[in-house]
Amino acid sequence: MTKNSIELETRIVCTVTITHTIMSKNSQEQLEAFLPSDVERLLDRSFLSQNRFVIVKYRPEYYTLGKYTRNEWTSYYDIGKEFDDGILTIDEYNRTESSLISCIKDIAFASGCKMVTVAYIEYGTVNVKTSGPKHRLLGQGSRLLVRDMDDALRKVIREEVWIVFINKNKHFMVDFGHEMYLNIRCPLGKNTVKTIVDNNNLFFDPRH
Question: Are residues 180 and 25 in contact, defined by beta-carbon separation less than 8 angstroms?
Fold first, then answer.
C-alpha cells in the first residue's frame, strides 16, 4: 500500500467518524447528505460521484411533509411492544432484518464486490461468525467476504456495534443510520437498485 493510499484510508476513517456524530443527533439529520460537503472533499471524487441510496422498511405512502406518520417499530429492542400493526414478534423482526441483510449483499454482489473492508468500527472489535472459521474478530481495516457479512450486519442492525463497510475499488460503501435507515453508495443505476430493493420487500426513502 502506498503512502497516499494509507493517508486516504486514514481520511476515510476520520470522515465517517464525523458523519456518524452528525447522524446520531436525530433521525432527521441522518437524512441530509450522507457525507457533509466539507468532508467529501477529503475523499476520492470518483468514489463520491457514485449514486447514493437510502433504503428503508417504511412504506413511502406514510411519509407526510418529510415525516413518517405511523407508529411503527424501529429497533430490535421494540420486540414485544405494541404498534399500529400490533405487537412486534421476533419472527416479524427477523424477516425484516433478513431482508436488509439480503439487500445489502445483493447490491454488493451486483456492484462487483467479493470483499469489503471495515473502514470504521465504533466499538473497537466485534466477534462474527463466518462460513470459513467458526468465528472471526473484526476490527478497523479487517476484510470480510460479502458472503460472510450476515453476522456482522446483524450486530450492526441490532445496534451492538457501528460499522462502515467499503470496497474502494468498486466504489461501494454501506452503513446504517438510526431507525434502520440503510445508506448505500454504489455504481449501480437507480432502476437496478430498485429491482433489488423491491425483491427484498423494502423501499426507497421517498425524501431522496
Answer: no
What is the DSSP secondary-structure string of the chain?
--HHHHHHHHHHHHHHHHHHHHHTS-TTGGGS-SS-HHHHTTS-HHHHTSEEEEEESS-GGGEETTEE-S----SGGGTT-EETTEEPPHHHHHHHHHHHHHHHHHHHHHTT-SEEEEEEETTSEEEEE-SSSSEEEEETT-EEEGGG-HHHHHHHHTTS--EEEEEGGGTEEEEE-GGG-EEEEESS-HHHHHHHHHHTT-EE-TT-
Which residues pair with residue 165 across a beta bridge?
118, 174
Kindly report, residue by residue over 110-133, the tens digit of the pLDDT: 999 999 999 888 887 899 988 877
CA distance 117 to 59: 31
Tell me: the pLDDT tens digits for 136-184?
A: 899 988 999 999 999 999 999 999 999 999 998 999 999 998 899 999 9
Domain residue spans of the chain = 47-204
CA distances from 129 to 71, 133, 150 (A): 34, 8, 8
CA-CA distance, 193 to 109, in Å (whole number)?
Answer: 12
- Answer whether 167's CB lies under 8 Å from 105's CB: no
pTM for this predicted structure: 0.79
At 70, give phi and psi (nearest 5°): -90, 150
